[in-house]
Design brief:
With 221 residues, the chain is of the alpha/beta class. It has a single domain, classed as Rossmann fold. The protein has helices spanning 2-11, 32-45, 56-70, 89-95, 109-119, 150-153, 171-177; strands spanning 49-51, 75-78, 99-100, 124-128, 131-133, 138-143, 157-163, 167-168, 187-191, 196-198, 204-206, 213-219. The chain has a six-stranded parallel β-sheet with strand order 1-12-7-4-2-3, with helices on both faces. Strands 8-5-6-9 form a four-stranded mixed β-sheet. A two-stranded antiparallel sheet has the order 10-11. A hairpin with a 4-residue loop joins strand 5 (131-133) and strand 6 (138-143). The protein is globular and about 65 Å long.
């Protein structure tokens, strides 16, 4: 049976896609401050810690304070300095004595296992975000060589820094503004609150498949 399936797959012809126009997504209007307010409201409803520092200096202080509370070992996973909307953040991490673990995984299976065990020591992950979706409190993260995906997935605390200018009404508005994002990155992740899962009895458990806590620092005018 499997041999017949394999032979069929080699010669199978897929039907042509219907040439029907796709209706443009409706993007609700909204002023920048209204989008920020909606986004913050949705984040808080999901149990996300939200911070709106008045300037970049205060934003750095907030990030360092969160890390000091959650990283007694001073080891974390973080994106490259160039990927943050706050240029001062990288030097501040170094002055505060935080060490960034190498989140690049080797191809060799045994070396990969050892590296993952090492990365498991990180108590927090620090990233930026390409976008925030106001209608659902969702963060959009694009991974890449300077943006390791494990920083937002592996540690128990994920701290994300987002520019106000990157908040969109919804997913449709984000893709209309950045139609090529999914082609320019190895991975696009949409994060809506801390990791949650429920069993058949609807018992909610937080942090099984990702961070137990999510904090978002919103910066910019």
């Amino acid at each position: 049976m499997f041999e017949r399936i394999r032979k069929s797959l080699r010669s199978a012809v897929l039907p042509a896609a219907a040439n029907s126009p796709v209706a443009a997504a409706r993007i609700p209007p909204g002023e920048p401050e209204e989008l920020v307010e909606m986004f913050v409201r949705e984040l808080k409803s999901l149990g996300v810690k939200v911070f709106l520092p008045p300037d970049s200096v205060e934003a750095v202080d907030v990030a360092i304070g969160l890390l000091q509370d959650s990283c007694p070992s001073r080891e974390l996973l973080a994106w490259h300095d160039s990927e943050f909307p706050i240029p001062e953040l990288g030097p501040a991490l170094q002055r505060a004595g935080f060490a960034r673990l190498d989140a690049n995984l080797p191809a060799d299976r045994e070396l990969r296992r050892l590296r993952l065990a090492e990365l498991g020591r990180a108590s927090a992950g620090l990233t930026s975000a390409q976008a925030g979706l106001a209608d659902s409190g969702t963060l959009a993260l694009l991974s890449g060589s300077k943006r390791p995906r494990l920083a937002s997935l592996l540690p128990p605390l994920h701290i994300s820094i987002l520019s106000k200018r990157a908040i969109y009404p919804n997913m449709a508005a984000y893709f209309q503004a950045h139609p090529k994002d999914v082609l320019q990155a190895s991975n696009l992740v949409f994060i809506t609150g801390p990791s949650r899962t429920a069993d058949i009895e609807q018992t909610l458990t937080v942090g099984v498949h990702g961070p137990r806590e999510l904090a978002t620092i919103i910066v910019g005018d």
